[in-house]
UniProtKB/TrEMBL annotation:
Species this protein is from: Lutimaribacter marinistellae
Superkingdom classification of source: Bacteria
Name of the featured protein: ABC transporter ATP-binding protein
SMART domains: AAA
Region (Disordered): 1-22
Amino acid sequence: MAISPTVDAEYKGTAQPGQERQPTLSVRDLVVEIPTRRGVLRPVDRVSYDLAPGEILGVVGESGAGKSMTGNAVIGLLDRPAHIAGGEILLNGRRIDNLSLREMRKIRGKEIGMVFQDPLTSLNPLIPIGEQLSETIETHLNVSKAEARKRALAALEEVGIPAAAERLDSYPHEFSGGMRQRVVIALALCAEPSLVIADEPTTALDVSVQAQIIALLKRLCREHGTSVILVTHDMGVIAEAADRVAVMYAGKLVEIGPVRDVLTHPRHPYTDGLVGSMPANSHGQARLRQIPGAMPRLNALPEGCAFHPRCPKAQDKCRHAPEPELMNGAACWFPVGEDA
Ligand SMILES: Nc1ncnc2c1ncn2[C@@H]1O[C@H](COP(=O)(O)OP(=O)(O)OP(=O)(O)O)[C@@H](O)[C@H]1O
């Protein structure tokens, strides 16, 4: 049975009748467009998903798939000329895709926390970190200066900054990359947002600290009941941290499902390729199969399914029929494991 891409089957499927919780975030048929001299590009093309309270959704795909654009659309930080050209974004049931810049600014920090690849983009280099934290807390939680400073210290302790009381007056450059990202996580969570968007939060860090930062993000969001969109090109990070995974290819959502199902039984051949190119873990055999070819440019998408030129299962239908919608979690005419 074909499932409309506007209905996220996995989310609806887990709720019992009458017990459906309002999703923290609903992205409905989201379209982001970029007008160019050679036509209009669609880096995000009718993407839909729901994010349940406390859920961690990993968004994965190769560079240029549209992962960051989707996240940036949610937080109202698309760089012009990219803009939302269709669909809806609801945060706790309230539409946020049509808010003014001023209203959106109030939501960022308070209702949506952000963790980017480079911690320095989130931190002001000229202000001690304790002050940055307490200012955010004071503004968003309406508490006194003294109370905000107390909570800033608690936030730093929570993210594992050693001797936190002495570090309140340190500047961002006085921390290592990993410690700085811990501070950013404290900043993202200090106003108790219901959603955190973490875009490649560990990509710029030493491999040795990447796992610690992912574990920290996961633990804190679990403890606070915060939902997370975790954008990454790394399936290993998804396996480590996410509850569900959304796979993007050339602006489209091509597969979505619980992480364990998608990793053990990927249905879209692109997901299968991504899983096959993961380095082996301690239980697996060496895999590291690369997907041949490269993702097409948005101004040169092939006819039919955008993945067909790289797909080992491609048939005539894939080359000519309109791109398939999500069916049982995968947008593919001939999913892996189902004989044509
Ligand atoms: N101003 C622009 N003009 C034309 N194309 C653009 C512009 N900005 C972004 N794009 C294209 O939009 C697409 C989506 O980019 P996006 O950053 O969301 O991808 P991504 O999956 O997050 O990749 P990465 O991991 O490299 O950040 C890319 O193909 C990119 O080249």
